[in-house]
Amino acid sequence: MAVYTEVTDEDLAEFLTRYDIGHMLSLKGIAEGVENSNYLLRTQGGEFILTLYEKRVDPNDLPFFLGLMEHLATRGINCPLPVKMRDGAMLGEIAGRPAAIVTFLDGVWVRRPTVRHCAELGAALAAFHKAGADFHLSRTNALGVGGWRPLFERSRARADEVVPGLAGEIDAELARLERDFPCDLPSGVIHADLFPDNVFFIDENLSGLIDFYFACNDAYAYDVAICLNSWCFETDGSYNLTKGRAFLNAYAAARPFSDAEVAALPLLASGSALRFLLTRLYDWLNVPPGAMVRPKDPLEYLRKLRFHRAVATARDYGLDR
Amino acid sequence: MAVYTEVTDEDLAEFLTRYDIGHMLSLKGIAEGVENSNYLLRTQGGEFILTLYEKRVDPNDLPFFLGLMEHLATRGINCPLPVKMRDGAMLGEIAGRPAAIVTFLDGVWVRRPTVRHCAELGAALAAFHKAGADFHLSRTNALGVGGWRPLFERSRARADEVVPGLAGEIDAELARLERDFPCDLPSGVIHADLFPDNVFFIDENLSGLIDFYFACNDAYAYDVAICLNSWCFETDGSYNLTKGRAFLNAYAAARPFSDAEVAALPLLASGSALRFLLTRLYDWLNVPPGAMVRPKDPLEYLRKLRFHRAVATARDYGLDR
């Protein structure tokens, strides 16, 4: 949960004079998200999300993120649309933080995705990849394969405090992935963090995608692998083949996989499991004093990594081919 | 900020079947309030607040709180109206917690109240006192004068860690207040926690009162004293006589003070300053490990208490009489 920067009524009233969305009627901090401060804003013009970008977001990336949302929204993807100021700008400043207003999306995220939700997700992820293909900006994936070792170096000395032998296991996995990870798969803009809390549903129908603040350019199939990890495992650590089949085949129906993507899927799934293992490990070992966010369990992703190491082909995930 | 209990989409969908407000469209935890878990809920029927009552609220008090809001709302006070289930009940259960849905109020709370805000507050507080006069339930003020000494006993041993000499100063103040505190002033239902974050405004017009979870039966003028403390001091500790005058005279225009109330005001103001000093002192000394709430500074109320000790008459607060 997160509201790091408090917005005063006065700051906001001043900020809103730059927009054409009327007077403020209500402003509530939202207890979700860990990167930024988010407020639900009601004005005479409707409902919006006000986001203040905190220190984990590089201000230089904001034109990419906001431009991407606008690009996607105008191509029919249900995602927040940045609201422009009278002068056309999408980005301002409140309380010393970069700040933007985007449209509000109805829907709730599902705590326990069903098979139907996974199928909806597959179709939406493929549509997102296709809609982003002609976006004119690009952003390197700082958390791609080249970023994992430097990230690990920041936790290595204390990794074995979490599980004995963890440092050695990650070392071996890094060596394997750095050697074998594919670098020539079909690529474009990926979401890179499409966990269940970033996907909204109304009843069983997908109503929108949110939180594009990890979006970057990388292999489409890597985005698929991230979703396999975050949607198709049960809380007991078991892989749900029915969910995997629903997700992968719905994706492939809209954007067919190349042979190289199919062959790479187990390795991509290992890589994405390692990426979340490493960031969670770092957060676990570095909880700031007075933190208002509980770190997520890194071991969930260690178990997933071990699962993927034993997978031979994409067929084992449920892909029909 | 506070969402202590996470509500799943499944729990809520089940809960909503008991109401006539349509399907859920959105649910966001609100990062405000410290007692309960609050969610902003959108359904086909509109906007609502869903509250899960956490352990600091006695479930036996809930019929008083919910009944009071209904009583006030039907008498024209802008406050949340509990939504009734199909069977007429106002209280249900989610995730093992008592839970209720109330209507959503537009408005924002003001971080720095102006003179105009204080005048609006005075009129609204008097209207609230008059509207509550014929409410048929009652609730003892557990944090009234008789509750202060037991509360202090829980912090006394460590009080001097906060300020040297604090325990002795509180002891002397308790002795004075227990001896002199008036017990026969005009009484009825009071809000007892009408701080700026519980009062909404749209522009400079008061749009509603919220958070009735400290409401109880006590002297009306004690409620006035609580507002004097929480609205009419500046952040540097100085008393703003212009705000005090605006607040007190707007109140008196709608509900004139008796002579006894006027005479008692400095003592009531001392008492209410001590009450908030004591609860803040306890919270300050007892921050639970992993707390997601930062305790408020008890010394703010020590300074206010010292101010009131030096006040001779209600005229010094700005009351015209």
Gap between N and C termini of chain A: 41 Å
C-alpha geometry of chain A = globular
Name given to the CATH architecture of the largest domain in chain A: Alpha-Beta Complex
Count the DSSP helices of chain A.
Answer: 10
The amount of beta strand of chain A, in percent, is 5-15%
Oligomer: homodimer
Total beta strands of chain A: 9
- Average pLDDT across residues of chain A? 94
Enumerate the strands of the largest sheet of chain A in spatial order, edge to edge or round the barrel.
1-2-3-5-4
* Rg of chain A computed from alpha carbons, rounded to a whole number of angstroms: 20 Å
The largest inter-chain interface, given as chain pair and residues per side, is: A-B, 36 and 36 residues
